[in-house]
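Tokens as discussed.
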């Protein structure tokens, strides 16, 4: 038996999942923790990780280390995604993590991140034909799935944090900023030639903004467990109604929306905009939510390599 710890350093959040793996390869998650350290904040056009953002993220990792150090038979895998992948000073950050936390972090390519999303979804959700959309803080990943196999995948460098900063979507959203954001997102999607093959296919959603969308609607429907989103689904109309409600006020008003974490209110419009644009672009009628993504994909790969 071992306890596999996955430290996932994202652009907006850093997460830890501890999975207890038995000798036969079966496993269960025994601990999950998240901290919104917002590593990609203020990176700008120069793609530079800011000192304060790095300090916040490393402090969160140190807190996680205090937790997983209490367990026996621990193996730690550290991964980083878009913010570190895009940063011109990523070596500085990775060196500080190594010095403070004592781990070597693997920086995933965009394609590898998308692939792990695919593995996590198809092994847990059971949808054989779909388009997977993972919206992170600084990128979104798209994976076309046909008969359970990934046929195309791509990572696009736009996410909740960098879209919100670039198009001024944090507080009250003006019509011109909304139009500019939608126009540019649609332009990025139009560059992906194979995307049109997923017209009217269901979307499977991953990422913090999408999870928030699910929680808001589950709260509105008076569901007891608003975080139990795996397999939950919404229609095109429900998604757009929720998005339009967010546009009707400023950040302070959004902080009052039930199911929306207050510290996500400044990036939720930018975080949902790729989804809203994509649904119109592909004439999507329904979306499904998955709680399994990159981390579960890594666990699956690890077990296949070491236990089978």
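Sequence:
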């Amino acid at each position: 038996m071992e306890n596999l710890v996955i430290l996932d350093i994202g652009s907006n959040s850093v997460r830890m999942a501890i999975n207890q793996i038995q000798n036969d390869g079966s496993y269960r998650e025994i601990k999950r923790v998240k901290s919104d350290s917002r590593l990609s904040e203020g990176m700008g056009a120069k793609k530079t990780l800011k000192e304060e953002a790095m300090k916040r993220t490393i402090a969160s990792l140190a807190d996680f280390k205090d937790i997983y150090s209490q367990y026996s038979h621990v193996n730690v895998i550290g991964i980083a995604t878009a913010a570190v992948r895009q940063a011109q000073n990523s070596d500085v950050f990775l060196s500080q993590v190594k010095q403070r936390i004592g781990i070597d972090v693997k920086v995933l390519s965009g394609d590898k991140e998308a692939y792990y999303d695919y593995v996590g979804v198809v092994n847990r959700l059971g949808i054989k034909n779909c388009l997977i959309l993972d919206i992170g803080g600084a990128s979104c990943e798209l994976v076309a799935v046909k008969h359970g196999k990934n046929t195309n995948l791509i990572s696009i460098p736009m996410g909740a944090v960098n879209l919100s900063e670039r198009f001024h979507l944090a507080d009250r959203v003006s019509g011109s900023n909304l139009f500019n954001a939608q126009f540019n997102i649609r332009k990025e999607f139009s560059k992906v030639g194979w995307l049109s093959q997923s017209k009217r296919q269901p979307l499977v959603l991953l990422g913090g903004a999408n999870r928030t969308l699910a929680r808001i609607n589950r709260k509105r429907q008076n569901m007891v467990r608003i975080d139990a989103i795996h397999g939950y689904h919404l229609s095109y109309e429900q998604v757009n109604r929720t998005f339009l409600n967010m546009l009707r006020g400023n950040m302070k008003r959004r902080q009052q929306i039930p199911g929306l974490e207050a510290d996500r209110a400044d990036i939720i419009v930018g975080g949902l905009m790729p989804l809203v644009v994509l649904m119109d672009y592909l004439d999507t009628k329904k979306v499904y939510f998955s709680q399994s993504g990159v981390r579960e994909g890594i666990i699956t790969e690890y077990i296949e390599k070491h236990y089978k």
